[in-house]
Amino acid sequence: MTATSAPTLAAAPRATADVPHRPTRITPGRVVRLVIFYLLLLIIALVFLTPYLFSLNASFKPLAAILSDHAWTPATSLSLTNFKEVLTSNGFATYLGNTVLITVIITVGQVLFSLMGAYAFARLRFPGRDALFWLYLSMLMVPNVVTMIPLYVLMDGAHLLNTYWALFLPYTLGTPYAVFLMRQYFLTLPSEILEAARLDGCSEARILFRILIPLARPIITTAAIIAFVFSWNNFLWPLIATNSSDLQVVTVGLANLQSNFGTQWNLVLAGSILVLIPLVVLFVIFQKQIVNSISLTGTNR
């Protein structure tokens, strides 16, 4: 009986493997649900995109056409006159240069120091590590506006107001959110990799920069994009910390543009589009890395 039952058991998997896969049946109700779902997504996308499309359209119009035409009336020509006038008036090109410089410094600093902090909280063992991490993470609940006055007093005491140091120094040494993202990612990596590196004589710095950073490119990209967007859009602190036009960033420059050209909406909208372009390009290039890093940080060991 053992000899006759063995072939039967062996043939069972082949019988189940040969069963053809039944295609998903498309019913009228399923089609209706899909159509409603995608229509809803289209409506939501239009709600969010319409103001940007109107601004882009108006940035090519002269002031008279903006005031007389409807917002959805297409521009008669794609003239770059408004953009040229914005870049050559009131130091707007200087504002862009300052913004690029400050944004690069803050982005590099936040990523570098957040990497080191996240590695310490994730892989190094020292007394009070978890309590210190949660205490540091609780700083996310403190609004930035609450720290403005103490930060201003600190910068004034250090004689750093109205300098480039005042613009990037408060935001360079990492952020709780970036440390949290990277820590969660480091926790998903196998500890055997680090133990093998330590057995080979690698220092903690070498493990971080030669092993973990190449593995953590998706989350580093996300942290860099978050830091870039924050620095590019930062308005309140640069407005408080500087009073010289040579040090102002593009967000403050746009506010000055609205006050100096309160009725010339063609220049205001053209300047807004110039400020928006780098953020759109950044997201289009790195959108896959952003989605990938979010899915990776959602899992933990």
From TrEMBL:
SUPFAM superfamilies: MetI-like. The keyword Cell membrane applies. It is a multi-pass membrane protein. Gene3D superfamilies: MetI-like (1.10.3720.10). One of its GO terms (cellular component) is plasma membrane. The keyword Acetylation does not apply. It is found in: Cell membrane. PANTHER family: ABC TRANSPORTER PERMEASE PROTEIN MG189-RELATED, ABC TRANSPORTER PERMEASE PROTEIN MG189-RELATED-RELATED. This is Multiple sugar transport system permease protein. The lineage of its organism: Bacteria, Bacillati, Actinomycetota, Actinomycetes, Propionibacteriales.
